[in-house]
Design a protein that fits this description.
It is a single chain. The protein is α/β, with parallel strands linked by helices and 197 residues long. It is 39% helix and 18% strand. The chain contains seven helices and eight strands; from the N terminus they run βαββαβαααβαβαββ. It has a six-stranded mixed beta sheet, with helices on both faces. Strands 2-3 form a two-stranded antiparallel sheet. The chain is globular, with a radius of gyration of 16 Å. 37% of the residues are buried.
C-alpha cells in the first residue's frame, strides 16, 4: 500500500479481512510470514507500528456510560497529547466527525453511525500516518455512510493519511479506493484499480 493511498481490502464474510487487520495492527500475532507497517516489523517492532497507526475496528471499544467528550479526554491523555492541547484537539475532532452537538451526551444514547464516527475521531487523536478501518460503514444509514466516506476522502487528500479500508461492499471500494485488493479464503486473488478490476 502506497503512502497517502486509500487501499480497499474487499472480500466476503470470513475471507480474512479482519484477521489481516488484527495482525497488521499488532493485535493478533501471525502464525507465519512477515509484514511491515510504517517500516516496522509487526512482530518485532510492535510499539513502532502502534505509534504510527490509528484503528477503528468492527467493534467500537466505547464505554456507554461516558460521553463523547469523556472519551476524547481519555484518549488524548492515553496518547500523550500535551495537557494544553487536549481540549482543543478533542473539540476539533468531534467537530470534524459531526458530533459537537452530542459531545456531552452519554454514548449509550448514540446511534450506530454516531458511535462509528466517535470511534474514527478517537483513532485520529494522535495524528496517525496510517489509518486502519475495518468495515467502517456496516450497519450505517445512507447519510452516515456518506459522511464517513467524505471524512475518509478528506483524510487521504488533505492530511496525506494512508487508509487501509476493509469492506464487503463493491460500491464502497469503487467510490473510495485508489486501489483494491480482493481477498478470498485468506489469499489475495486480485489487486488493481477499481477500473481495472
Amino acid at each position: 500500500v502506497r503512502p497517502g493511498e486509500i487501499y480497499g481490502f474487499l472480500g466476503p464474510n470470513g475471507a480474512g479481512k479482519s484477521t489481516t487487520v488484527l495482525m497488521l495492527t499488532t493485535l493478533l500475532p501471525p502464525t507465519a510470514g512477515t509484514a511491515r507497517v510504517a517500516g516496522h516489523d509487526i512482530v518485532r517492532e510492535g510499539p513502532g507500528v502502534r505509534s504510527a497507526i490509528g484503528a477503528a475496528l468492527q467493534e467500537a471499544a466505547l464505554d456507554p456510560l461516558l460521553t463523547g467528550l469523556d472519551h476524547m479526554r481519555l484518549q488524548t491523555t492515553l496518547q500523550g497529547i500535551p495537557r494544553s492541547e487536549r481540549a482543543r484537539r478533542g473539540d476539533l475532532l468531534l467537530e470534524r466527525v459531526g458530533l459537537s452537538q452530542a459531545a456531552d451526551r452519554k454514548v449509550r444514547g448514540y446511534s450506530g453511525g454516531m458511535k462509528r464516527r466517535l470511534d474514527l475521531a478517537l483513532a485520529l487523536v494522535h495524528s496517525p500516518r496510517i489509518l486502519f478501518l475495518d468495515e467502517p460503514t456496516t450497519g450505517l444509514d445512507p447519510q452516515s455512510r456518506s459522511a464517513l466516506w467524505e471524512e475518509v476522502r478528506r483524510l487521504a487528500q488533505d492530511d496525506g493519511v494512508t487508509v487501509f479500508l476493509t469492506t464487503q461492499y463493491l460500491e464502497e471500494a469503487d467510490v473510495l479506493a485508489n486501489r483494491v485488493g480482493i481477498i478470498d479464503h485468506g489469499r489475495i486473488v486480485a489487486d488493481g484499480t477499481p477500473a481495472q478490476l
